[in-house]
Specification:
The chain is α+β, with helices and mostly antiparallel strands and about 280 residues long. It has one domain: Jelly Rolls, CATH 2.60.120. The chain is about 20% helix and about 20% strand. Strands 2, 3, 4, 5, 6, 7, 12 and 13 form an eight-stranded antiparallel sheet that branches. A three-stranded antiparallel sheet has the order 1-8-11. Strands 9-10 form a two-stranded antiparallel sheet. Bound molecules: fe (ii) ion. The site of fe (ii) ion has 4 residues, from loops.
Length: about 280
């Protein structure tokens, strides 16, 4: 996937774009991947939870989704295959996604410390889901239906003031595959901002206002890939990495995924920077 794919993600873009300033997107001390073997690519895929934890996690996600739909007068069983979500959501879709994004982590489907410990183990240092800038601990479910423009354009999370010095995770829960999962541009977290042309503020595409700006062009040689983590795998990636534009290219599967961010724990910040 190349520029053709970027063009596809911005079809109908209504605002103008310009090349970024001649500045590094990321300083060395902001890079939580620094000294890790996968810093060059900016992402890694690892096993997520142990089988019992994952079974409990996905069961509780199903219960939460079915209870939330029930509040909207849509009835499904907790064991409903949510990759079929687009068939039952109808006019309730926007209400549903508003109820399942930006959730307080005290309502995480399993003990939040389990996931913090797992991500800490992968990173090799302790992380926390507590955002020191916003003072929040939150997580999100993302829903991308087939034949709808539910996906964000390609962006860096760090174009938002509240996401600095952290890592992000993608876990596919339902309908996540090679046609629906999150695309990324490997290595792009190290690019100067001047290599990326983007809208100055949130993209306006076909009348839909997105919070994130849209990447419209890049000047560096690149490839766009969908790493496609399997069931019970987690993709960890840099918030400086260009990602998004997750067009659902399947005919009949809704993709639902978990998005959650982690920062270095305070007890890690006192330690010297990795060398
Ligand atoms: Fe993002």
């Amino acid at each position: 996937m190349t520029d053709k794919f970027i063009k596809k993600t911005i079809e109908g873009l209504e605002n103008s774009s310009c090349w970024g300033a001649n500045e590094l997107a990321m300083r060395k001390d902001q890079n939580l991947l620094y000294s890790l073997s996968w810093d060059n690519q900016g992402f890694i895929i690892e096993n997520f939870l142990n089988p019992e934890e994952y079974a409990e996690f996905i069961k509780n996600v199903g219960i939460f989704f079915s209870e939330t739909l029930s509040e909207l007068k849509v009835s499904v069983s907790p064991t409903f295959n949510f990759s079929e979500y687009h068939k039952i959501a109808g006019e309730h879709h926007l209400d549903f996604i508003n109820k399942i994004k930006h959730l307080d982590s005290k309502n995480f489907p399993i003990d939040k410390s389990i996931i913090e410990k797992r991500i800490s183990d992968i990173m090799g240092f302790n992380v926390t889901n507590f955002n020191p800038t916003t003072k929040e601990s939150v997580f999100h479910f993302r829903v991308i239906r087939p034949n709808f423009s539910d996906n964000n354009p390609i962006h860096r999370d760090t174009w938002h003031w509240e996401y600095k010095d952290n890592i992000n995770i993608y876990v596919g829960l339902f309908g996540s595959d090679e046609r629906t999962s999150l695309p990324i541009i490997p290595g792009s977290h190290h690019w100067n901002e001047s290599k990326v042309k983007r809208t100055e503020s949130g993209a306006l595409i076909n009348g839909i206002q997105y919070v994130v700006p849209a990447t419209t062009e890049v000047s560096e040689e690149h490839s766009i890939i969908r790493p496609n983590p399997a069931e019970n795998e987690v993709m960890i990636f840099s918030p400086y990495l260009l990602h998004g534009g997750a067009i659902n290219e399947s005919e009949n599967h809704t993709r639902i995924s978990l998005e959650m961010r982690f920062w270095k724990s305070n007890n890690e910040l006192d330690k010297p920077t990795n060398t």
